[in-house]
Amino acid sequence: MKQWETSELYREVKSRPSEDGSLPFQKDSAGFNTEARRRCLHLLEYSPRTVYQLKKRLMDDGFSAEQTDDAIRYAESFGYVDDGNYAMEYVRTGCQKKSRRQLYMQLSSRGVDKESIEDALEAYADEQENTVRRLARKRLMQKPPRTEEDFLKAVKSLVSKGFPYEMAKRAVWELRDEYGSTNK
């Protein structure tokens, strides 16, 4: 018995038919074996993945392109694979620590299409200002600024993380009054 045959997701899916009415994990008319489908569900049980990530992983595991596509369509028929939802959830959890640019790059490297990324980023656009303020405060608290140059270093730090220069500068300058500057 394979490890993924004992998983909860496997047992749940095994008990209900897919959209085409076939029972789970039976060879279909094209002769696809169920091993790729099982492996796909096993991968999804540990963490959500994009179509690109699943395709890459299944191909690396030695499944053919046809078996891989079948397994992904199978998982999609149950709603377990959806790049739009993946992007939305990724941005929701990442917007507290990462810039819009970082999130965009990470999602595109995971194979999420541009439209899904833009939709997800747009949904959490107002969080960007709060994130840059929070990170600016954290940076200034770690090493309290003494000079104007220390404030500029904080701005550079935020810009290097992918935040727009004007937004980073505004956040740091708002906090400058709290910390003061001895050498203006």
TrEMBL record:
Predominant place of localization: cytoplasm
Cellular localisation: Cytoplasm
Residue span of region Disordered: 1-30
Keywords: Cytoplasm
GO biological process: regulation of DNA repair
InterPro entries attached to this UniProt entry: RecX_HTH_1st, RecX_HTH_2nd, Regulatory_RecX, WH-like_DNA-bd_sf
Cytoplasm is among the record's keywords: yes
Biased composition (Basic and acidic residues): 8-19
Pfam families tied to this protein: RecX_HTH1, RecX_HTH2
Superkingdom classification of source: Bacteria
GO CC annotation: cytoplasm
Family membership: Belongs to the RecX family.
HAMAP family: RecX
Designated name of the protein: Regulatory protein RecX
Originating species: Anthropogastromicrobium aceti
